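Q: Convert this sequence to structure tokens.
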Amino acid sequence: MEWPPNSPDINPIREHLWHCLKTQLHKRFPDTPLLGGGTVRQSLEERLIVVWENIVRERLDKLRPRRVHALYKAKGWYTPY
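A:
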């Protein structure tokens, strides 16, 4: 299946995942906005890795097949997403 790298029909997957990542980050680590000092980047990176691993298992497997199937079925045209 050939698709342009910036297909607008695939972008909602990325946008949805960013939203999930941010939501889960704040649910799992409610003190994230209060991080300060020189360890912010390292702490945030560690937290994001933990959250990302959970999102991949729970969300991506549900999201990807439905949208990729819609793209394939539309033969490169618009999808409902």
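Residues 11-73 form one domain.
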